[in-house]
């Protein structure tokens, strides 16, 4: 049985091989697995936890590719259904020498966006120790939002802790005010909230880490901890029981692709919590996985195994002590 569960939209990404070419002129692409929540499931599995992914794909080549890729990564597909009436989403991603790559999505009315609450009833939550949710899935459709909220209710009934990453995608929402209101409402249901510093500016009109943390701790008694991604600077932690500190990031000499770094951060934090590490140590692991993630072209291809993570951390510790 799985000890980790997430719900999201699985996708295929075609990542451009042509450096610094606009997506309209790039002609060579490589296909990878994608989707924010699926990225997290991949990373959790690589760190030797049993990962369970809930979603739907279309009866199409992309859906088959995703199912096979998940099985290769040892992700449980028991609740990955095939929807013959809707398609599997995909997107294009630019390759850049610096900064964030341009992306273009083809995902409206996907199979995942039409997943019903009946699919949630079928999930066995008896062994789940931690669930991770994202604001992306909430934004896909009114149906996906209903399904997400239904899963939250079931997780609360079973006393399964929830982590929530806002993962803002303004283009998926009808307007910014709806995005802010719905995202913050979902955050109220999570024991752990994982916003980025730029997301804080949008969601609560502040880029001060402590103010962001205080907002989420104060808006709900459910929320016990807030970990704010600060990019290369690391992460800021504040908890209801008194932790208040900043964890440093890891230097990266060459950034290949920033997409998937935030999901990699979640992988490190959540796997650390599943390993019963203190939150600060789990957050350091999150910074490490994020640093490894940006050094590969695929959204999740840079996520490490336990051995690779241990070697990365040992190398870094050796460098700072020399």
Give average pLDDT, whole number.
92
The number of helices is 11
CATH topology: UDP-N-acetylmuramoyl-L-alanine:D-glutamate ligase
DSSP strand tally: 14
CATH evolutionary superfamily:
Ribokinase
Whole-number total of structural domains: 1
Assess the beta-strand content as a share of residues. 15-25%
Kindly report the oligomeric state of this protein: single chain
- State the order of secondary-structure elements, H for helix, E for strand: EEEHEHEEEEHEHHEHEHHEEEHHH
Helix content: 25-40%
Query: What does the radius of gyration come to?
Result: 18 Å
Give the CA-CA distance, first to last residue: 44 Å
Note poorly predicted spans: none
The CATH class is identified as Alpha Beta
Structure description:
This protein has helices at residues 36-46, 61-72, 117-121, 135-139, 142-157, 176-187, 197-204, 209-219, 261-274, 279-293, 306-321, and strands spanning 4-7, 11-19, 29-34, 51-58, 75-76, 80-83, 90-95, 103-106, 130-134, 162-165, 192-193, 225-229, 235-239, 244-247. Helix 1 crosses helix 9 and helix 9 runs antiparallel to helix 10. The model has no long low-confidence stretch (mean pLDDT 92). It has one domain (4-321): Ribokinase (UDP-N-acetylmuramoyl-L-alanine:D-glutamate ligase, 3-Layer(aba) Sandwich). The strands form 2 sheets. Strands 1, 4, 5, 6, 9, 10, 11, 12, 13 and 14 form a 10-stranded mixed sheet that branches. Strands 3-2-7-8 form a 4-stranded mixed sheet. The chain is an alpha/beta fold and 322 residues long.
